[in-house]
Every structure is written in structure tokens, then in C-alpha cells.
Amino acid sequence: MVSKREEEYLEVMYLLQKNKGVIRVKDIAKILKVKPPSVVDALKKLSKKGLVEYEKHDRITLTEEGRKIAEETYSKHILLTEFFTNVLGIPPEIAEEDACQFEHYVSEVTVKRIREFITYIQENCPYVLKQFLKKVQEEDKNQKTPAR
């Protein structure tokens, strides 16, 4: 079993590998806003679980299983962000923050249903979606969207 925090580490490593081509302790620490020793401790735990390959002062790589978990988590993140912004009209910065929280707790059943709903509403009810988004944008302008 992988904890929420471990998923966060795996997702960050996946994105670093994808975007920078290399995973470094200092980059993980900066993104997650933790100290490098905390990253090293997490890497040791993830290594024991077979999710990363890590040796001090050596390359950090995700194992196949670690990459799979990271991709699933990131996929949920993208879907939830899209749902919150494009369907519910949530401002992007709030949607991003909420997606970071939800992605670790939402079930595959719910993810599948959200994906189906987005497709259905975009294909079959685009006018309704457009009207709803227009309505919430008007409300946001009049109320000034609550900040976090």
C-alpha cells in the first residue's frame, strides 16, 4: 500500500523525469517544500517498497511499478483539474490545489464516472455546459471568488 505522501513523491519524480530528464533530491525537495534529508528518507522507504531505485549519490529512477503509480496519480490530477475548471468553472489556481488533494483519495470508479460525464456533457450538452459556465463566471465577477 502506498500512502498519499508517497504518491506525491512518485508523481513529482515522474514529472521531473518527464520534464527535465533527471530526478534530483534538491529538485524534489524544492517542489514538495521539504528539506533534502526528508527526501532521502522518503527515497529509502520507496526503494524498500520497490518503487524507486536509489543509492546515495547515484541516479534516482522510478521502477516500473513506481512509474505506473505515478502515471495513475498524475492522470487523476489532470482529469480532476479539467473537471473543476472546464465543467464546474472553478478558477485554475483553486482547481489545481483541489486536484492535488482529491487525486490521492478518489476511487477508480469515481475517476471513470467523471471521465464519462465530461465526455457526455461536452458531446451531448455543450450548450448547457456553456450556459452554466457563463452563469458561474458572472457570479464570480459579482462576488469576487473566495480565495484560499
Give a quick precis of the structure.
The chain has 148 residues and is mainly alpha-helical. The protein has 7 helices and 2 strands. The chain has a two-stranded antiparallel sheet.
Strand order of the largest sheet: 1-2
Strand count: 2
CATH class of the largest domain: Mainly Alpha
Largest sheet: 2 strands, antiparallel
Oligomer: single chain
Distance between the termini: 31 Å
Structural class: mainly alpha
Helical content stands at over 70%
Low-confidence stretches: none
CATH fold node name of the largest domain: Diphtheria Toxin Repressor, domain 2
> How would you sum up the global shape?
elongated
SSE order in H/E notation?
HHHEEHHHH
Which CATH architecture of the largest domain is right?
Orthogonal Bundle
How much strand content do the residues show?
A: under 5%
User: What is the typical, i.e. mean, pLDDT?
Assistant: 93
Q: Count the helices. How many?
A: 7
Q: Supply Rg.
A: 18 Å
Overall tally of domains: 2
What features would you describe in this structure?
- The protein has 148 residues and is an all-alpha fold.
- The chain folds into 2 domains: 4-68, Arc Repressor Mutant, subunit A (Orthogonal Bundle); 71-142, Diphtheria Toxin Repressor, domain 2.
- It is 73% helix and 3% strand.
- A two-stranded antiparallel ribbon has the order 1-2.
- Helix 4 packs across helix 5.
- The radius of gyration is 18 Å and the shape is elongated.
- The mean pLDDT is 93.
Indicate the topology.
Blueprint (H helix, E strand, L loop, with lengths): L3 H17 L4 H8 L3 H13 L3 E2 L7 E2 L1 H24 L4 H11 L5 H17 L1 H18 L5
Helix pairs in contact: 1-2, 1-4, 2-3, 4-5, 4-6
InterPro entries: DtxR_MntR_Metal-Reg (IPR050536), Fe_dep_repressor (IPR001367), Fe_dep_repressor_sf (IPR036421), HTH_DTXR (IPR022687), Iron_dep_repressor (IPR022689), WH-like_DNA-bd_sf (IPR036388), WH_DNA-bd_sf (IPR036390)
Family: Belongs to the DtxR/MntR family.
Keywords: DNA-binding, Transcription, Transcription regulation
